Every structure is written in structure tokens, then in C-alpha cells.
From TrEMBL:
Region (Disordered): 1-22, 62-88
Keyword Oxidoreductase: yes
Domain of life: Bacteria
GO molecular function: heme binding; iron ion binding; monooxygenase activity; oxidoreductase activity, acting on paired donors, with incorporation or reduction of molecular oxygen
Official protein name in the record: Cytochrome P450
Keywords annotated in UniProt: Heme, Iron, Metal-binding, Monooxygenase, Oxidoreductase
Compositional bias segments (type: Low complexity): 1-13
Family listed: Belongs to the cytochrome P450 family.
Coiled coil: none
InterPro entries in UniProt: Cyt_P450, Cyt_P450_B, Cyt_P450_CS, Cyt_P450_sf
């Protein structure tokens, strides 16, 4: 394997749409703490070993950069891609006691019991969407027919937002997470519209609460006298909608593509549906198409990793996908082992900033796979794997479409 250039540029190139970058293995072995250049021209540090990535993700001192940090930018000047990090009046607290307080309030809604209660509704929705896809005939785009609508139905139900607005949610999510599809002006205009929408939604829930997450948080705030502020409620709703919609929608498409890329995998699941749970986690581990940037952390002080000192002010990109293939932790990491257990992958992060909605995401993926195995056992890709097309510039990664037939 040839040595990569001294200054690597993110995202790293891949051989095929589902393949990991060839540079990952070299980096883990020879340069696990690497300097990288971003599309903006700024530089940061990329970590590719499991222990390094997990150490930084679990360190409560560090969080994603805020507008005040002046950390490395991903998008070039005038490019798209914004988030609530850019508006201090709306940003969910990311550090210290304020962040812990926020997590305590929101995490109570994502308990296993509450997510389990949502499962029958997810199954019914998924079965209906699959039936609609079948009626439309093959070939079909599974991402458009199932991958996109299922998570948005679920998140709208959670937030108490009208599902009729799902196309607006999709546009807003894309405008925030895609660094080269939109101009900066377009992304910020979408951001402003989204803030206005969610501000109105929070006001409506305060006036007439329902049984959704936003109403629950408002009621808990009233009962305790020190709950989330309205700006925090708006930021929370925005963050959950973007994360709960865009990431899961893309993961559904990638999961199905990975499993159908080798027919033996699909046949094994048909023969033993009990493997669905471990198969979902294995796909989450093996997904190499996570956007190519990793999880950002901003160092507020110096950090030493294996003798390398990273100075305060450094923006670190935790290469979660690369870490998930670290042979020091995972046996035969480049193989998709549908029964792999234990599977301590880092796809949902770790520590104080781990994904609050991971139980919900896992359940959506499990439901999707279970329904497809039951309803469409003959499912297969309608194009060769090499012809699948990645979504360019999307920080969470994805495929443009997933053509299937049955």
C-alpha cells in the first residue's frame, strides 16, 4: 500500500460507494494522529485508532466547536452547511453542568420503555410504505419509498410536528448538513426559516400541550420550575429533527445496500431472522460511508495522545468509521459478521455526548429490516454495487438512491 500524501484532504477517496478509504489502515498503523485539510482550506487533526477516538469522545472536557471557538471550518467560504452551533441564542448547551442538565431532561424521553412503546406504530408505518412501493412496481428507489419517509414520520410523531411538512424538514436538514450543495446564503436562509417554524411550534405546544416530546419537556419545566428555556426547546427540537431524520434515512439505504451487496447475507437473515438485532449493529459498525469527516471535538486545552501533544485550539475529527475497523478491537474487522457480539462500535459516539436517540435509531433500523425480510424476501439490488452513487458533500454520508427489485 502506498503511503498517503503528508497532508491528507478530507473526505478521503474510496474505491467504491460502500468501501472504506484505503488510507484508513495505513493511518491506524503509521499515523494515527494525522493533520488533515478540510474543504474550507482549514486544517485539523484526524484520529483513526479506536482507543484514541473513544478516549476523546468520553472526555467531558471537550465538545463540538461553537461559534465562539473559532475552530476549523468544514465548508469553504460562502459554502453551505450550518447548525445551531452558529447561533448562541439557540444552541443546546454542549459543555459543563448546563449540558448535563439538558441531557437529564431530554434523555428521560428516550428510555427503552418509551421507544418500545413506539415500535408497533413504526411497524405499521413501515409495512404501509413497503406496500405502496410494491404497488408502484419494480424497480423502485428504496431510499425514496421507505428510507426517507419512515424516519420523518417517526420524528414528526415524537415532536408533535405535522407530517405534511416533511418535505420542508428534508430541505432544511440537507441545507444544514451538506457542505457543497448550497451557498452560505441559502443555508442561512433555511436556518432562519427553521428557527421561525420551531419557535412557532414551541409556542403552540405551550398554549395547547399534547403527548409529544416538546409538550412533555414544557410540562416538566413547569412542574420543576427550572426546565429548558424556550431557546433551548427550539434548539432541541431542531437538533432532534435533523439528526433523527437525515442520519437514519441515509442509514436505512446504506444498511439495505450493504446486506444485498452479498446475497449470502440476505439469505442468512431469511434463514435466521433472530439475527436482525446483531446484524443492525454490525452494519452500523461496518458503514464506511459516514460522510468522511468524523465527529468534531474542539480542544480547550492541550491533550497528549501516545506521545503526540495536541495543543488547545485544535479541532479534532474523531474518525469513528475508521476506529470501528480497528483490528486491535474487532476480529476480522473488514468482514460483515451478522452475529458479531460483543460489538462495541462507536457509531453513536461515547461518553457525555453519545447520541441520545440511539435506541430509537436502532429500533427503526431493526423494524425496517424485519419488515423487508417478511414482506419482500426476494428483494435484491436492481443495479451493480459499483453503480450506486454517494451523496456528495453530506457530512453524515449517504447514497443518492437505492434501486431495488423483487
Amino acid at each position: 500500500m502506498s503511503r498517503p500524501d503528508p497532508l491528507l484532504r478530507l473526505p478521503l477517496p474510496t474505491e467504491g460507494p460502500l468501501d472504506p478509504p484505503a488510507d484508513w489502515q495505513h493511518l491506524r498503523e503509521r499515523c494515527p494522529v494525522a493533520t488533515v485539510e478540510l474543504p474550507s482550506g482549514d486544517t485539523g487533526t484526524l484520529l483513526t485508532r479506536y482507543d484514541h477516538v473513544r478516549s476523546l469522545l468520553t472526555d467531558p472536557r471537550f465538545a463540538r466547536p461553537t461559534a465562539e471557538d473559532g475552530g476549523a471550518r468544514i465548508a469553504p467560504e460562502g459554502g453551505g452547511g450550518v447548525s445551531t452551533d452558529g447561533d448562541p441564542s439557540l444552541a443546546v448547551p454542549t459543555r459543563g453542568e448546563a449540558h448535563l442538565r439538558w441531557r437529564r431532561h431530554v434523555s428521560r424521553y428516550f428510555t427503552a420503555k418509551r421507544v418500545t412503546a413506539l415500535r408497533p406504530g413504526m411497524v405499521a408505518t413501515a409495512e404501509s410504505l413497503v406496500a405502496d412501493m410494491v404497488r408502484g412496481g419494480a424497480p423502485a428507489d428504496l431510499k425514496a419509498a421507505l428510507g426517507f419517509p419512515l424516519p420523518v414520520f417517526v420524528i414528526c410523531d415524537l415532536l408533535g410536528a405535522p407530517v405534511e411538512d416533511r418535505l420542508r424538514f428534508s430541505y432544511w436538514s440537507d441545507a444544514f448538513l451538506n457542505v457543497d450543495r448550497y451557498t452560505g446564503d441559502e443555508s442561512h436562509a433555511a436556518y432562519t426559516d427553521f428557527v421561525t417554524y420551531m419557535t412557532d411550534l414551541v409556542a403552540a405546544k405551550r398554549a395547547r400541550p399534547g403527548e409529544d416530546l416538546v409538550s412533555t419537556l414544557i410540562e416538566e419545566s413547569r412542574a420543576e420550575g427550572r426546565g429548558l428555556t424556550d431557546p433551548e426547546l427550539v434548539g432541541t427540537a431542531m437538533g432532534l429533527l435533523v439528526a433523527g431524520h437525515e442520519t437514519t434515512a441515509n442509514m436505512i439505504g446504506k444498511m439495505v445496500a450493504l446486506l444485498l451487496a452479498d446475497r449470502g447475507r440476505w439469505e442468512r437473515l431469511l434463514a435466521d431472522p433472530a439475527l436482525v438485532r446483531t446484524a443492525v449493529d454490525e452494519v452500523l459498525r461496518a458503514d464506511a460511508n459516514l460522510g468522511g469527516f468524523g465527529v468534531r471535538r474542539y480542544l480547550t486545552e492541550d491533550v497528549e495522545l501516545d506521545g503526540t501533544v495536541l495543543p488547545g485550539g485544535t479541532t479534532v475529527f474523531c474518525g469513528v468509521s475508521a476506529a470501528n475497523r480497528d483490528e486491535r478491537v474487532f476480529d476480522r474487522p473488514d468482514e460483515l459478521d451478522l452475529a458479531r457480539t460483543p460489538n462495541p462500535h462507536l457509531t453513536f459516539g461515547a461518553g457525555p455526548h453519545s447520541c441520545l436517540g440511539q435506541s430509537l435509531a436502532r429500533t427503526e433500523l431493526q423494524v425496517t429490516l424485519d419488515v423487508l425480510l417478511r414482506k419482500l424476501p426476494s428483494l435484491e439490488l436492481a443495479v451493480p454495487v459499483a453503480e450506486l452513487r454517494q451523496v456528495e458533500g453530506l457530512t453524515v454520508g449517504g447514497l443518492r438512491e437505492v434501486p431495488v427489485r423483487w
